[in-house]
Amino acid sequence: MSFASLGLCEPILRTIDEQKYAEPFPIQVEAIPAILSGRDVMAAAQTGTGKTASFTLPLLQRLAGGCKVKSNHVRALILAPTRELALQIAENIATYGKQLPLKTAVVYGGVKINPQMMKLRGGVDVLVATPGRLLDLFGKNALKFAQVETLVLDEADRMADDGFTPQVEWILRHVTGEHQTMLFSATLDGQVGNLVK
Ligand code: AMP
Description:
Elements: H1 10-19, H2 26-36, E1 41-44, H3 51-64, E2 74-79, H4 83-96, E3 104-107, H5 114-121, E4 124-129, H6 131-139, E5 150-153, H7 156-161, H8 165-174, E6 180-185, H9 193-196
Parallel strand pairs: 1-6, 2-4, 2-5, 3-4, 5-6
Helix pairs in contact: 2-3, 3-4
C-alpha cells in the first residue's frame, strides 16, 4: 500500500517523502480515503499510531482546493485537550502543509489573548485550539464559525476526562453550517460516551 494509492495529491506526497514514511500505517489506510471523500470519521486510536497524519493530510488536501477564508473566520477547527498536543498538531500541519497556501494558527490558554486575536483577524484556514481558549476568543468576537468545513476532536477521551465535555458540546452546537466531523479517541466508551453519541 502506498500513500499515492490513498488519493493524496502531489504536493502532499512530496512532504511525506521528505518525512521518509515508507508506507501508510493501518489507521491512515482506513481514514485517509474516507476523509478525502468527505465522510464523517470516528476512530479509536492511541497516540503513536500515526493518527495525526491520518486526519491532517486529507484535511489539508481538501482545504487546498477550496475558497478563501474571510476575516475572523476559520475553515478547519481542530480541538485538542492540552497546549502540548495542540502545538504538536500545529507542528505536523506546518510540516505536511508547507507546499500549500494555507494559513494556520494555534491557540491555548495560559498566555495573553490579544496576540491570538490579532492572528485571527485576517482569518485562518486551520485553527488548532484548546476548548476553553476557543470559547474565550468566540466570546470576544474574534472568531466566527460560519465558514467551518471541518471539525476535528482529537483525543476526545482526554477532553471528556478533563471536564471539557460542556465546552465541546457548546462548540458542536454552534458550528451549524454543513461540515465534516471527525473524532479521534483512545477509547469510544466511558466518559467520552456522550461526545461519541
Ligand atoms: P501520532 O500517532 O500522530 O502521534 O504519530 C506518531 C509518530 O509516527 C509521529 O512521529 C509521526 O511523524 C510518525 N508517523 C506518522 N505516520 C507515519 C508513517 N506512515 N510511517 C512512519 N512514521 C509515521
